[in-house]
Amino acid sequence: MARLLGTLRSSQPVARFQRCCGLFPAAEEGGGDPYIVKNYFYYYLFKFSAALGEEIFYITFLPFTYWNIDHSVSRRMIIIWSIVMYIGQVSKDILKWPRPLSPPVVKLEMRTDAEYGMPSTHAMAATAISFSFLIATVNQYKYPFELGLVAAFVFSTLVCLSRLYTGMHTVLDVIGGALISAVLLVLLYPAWDMIDHSLLTSPFCPLLSIVVPLILCYNYPKLDYYSPTRGDTTTILGAGAGATVGFWLNNQYVAPAYTGENLQLGFPLITSKIVVVVLARFFVGIFVVLLTRQLMKSVVLGMLRYRYKFPIGDLEARRRLEVEVPYKFITYSSVGFSATVIVPLLHKLLGLM
C-alpha cells in the first residue's frame, strides 16, 4: 500500500500521462518554447476542462442556474461549493504537499504553482458541483438518472484529468480531492433541507453569513511565503456570503422559497421564446455582475490604499492580510449579493421574469 501511494504521489505518472496525450517538454525536442504540443485535441480539451474549475466558470454557471433553472438547486450548490472549497484550500496549507516536479512534468500554469498540491481543489469543486446538481435536480425534474450520473461523472473526470495534463497535480492529489468531496457530500446531504431552511428563515442568517466567513479568512493558516490560497479562499467565502444574504432577503421580502412560488423557468419545453428569455437573463445578469466586480474592486482598493498609504502598483502591500482579506471579501460578497438580489430585480423590471 505504501509503495502504491508513493507511486501515485510521484511526478512520473503525471509525466507519462502528458506524453501519452502528446505534450512534451521543449528540451526533449530541442525547441525554444517551454513545451511542444503534438496532439491539439487533448490540449484544447484539457485546457477547456481546467477552466471549468476557475473563476470564469463559477461566475457564469452558478448565477445562470439561479437565474434560469432553479433557486433551490443553486442555493444548495453554492453552499456545498463554499464548504468544500474552504476545506480543500485549508487542507493544502496544512498538509503542505508539493506539486509535481518540473522536470519531468510540463507545467502549463504558473499562478497556482505557488500553492501546495494536496488535495486538488479543482477535483473537489468539479465533484461537488456536478454531483450536488444531480442530487438536487433528480427528484424535482423528469430526466433519466443514468444520464445525469454519466454527465456528472464525465464532467468531474475531465476536470480531474485536466489537472494531470496541465502538470498541476499528482494522481494522488486528484483522487484525494474527489474522494474528500464525495465524503463531504454524503455527510452534508442528510442536512441539506435543514441548512437551506435555516439560511432562508433564521433572523441571524445575515449576521452569521458575514461574520463566520470573515473570522475564517482572518484566521487562515499562515505560511512562510505568500500563496494565493488565502486570497482565493476569501473570494469564495465572500461570494458565498453575499449570495446567502441575498437568498435570505429574497425569502423575507420578495418571494418566500417555501410557498411554492417560482421565479425561475425550471426545465420547460425548449421554445424559441424561452431561449431568448434565457439568453437575455444571462447576458443582462453577467453584465451587471462583471460591472459590480469591477466597480467594487476600484472602490474598495481605493479606500484601502487611502487607509494604509500604499501606491497602486505595490503588489506586496495588496498581499498583506489587512488589505487582501477586506479587498477580496467585500468585492466578491458584493458580486454574490448583486447576482442574487440586484439582477433578479432588474430582470423583473425588464419583463424577463
TrEMBL record:
Keyword Membrane listed: yes
Record SUPFAM superfamilies: Acid phosphatase/Vanadium-dependent haloperoxidase
SMART domains, A to Z: acidPPc (SM00014)
Key words of the record: Membrane, Transmembrane, Transmembrane helix
GO cellular component assignments: endoplasmic reticulum membrane
TM annotation in the entry: 44-66, 116-135, 147-165, 172-192, 198-221, 233-250, 270-291, 329-347
Domain Phosphatidic acid phosphatase type 2/haloperoxidase intervals: 74-189
Superkingdom of the organism of origin: Eukaryota
Keyword check for ATP-binding: no
Designated name of the protein: Sphingosine-1-phosphate phosphatase 2
Organism: Strix occidentalis caurina (northern spotted owl)
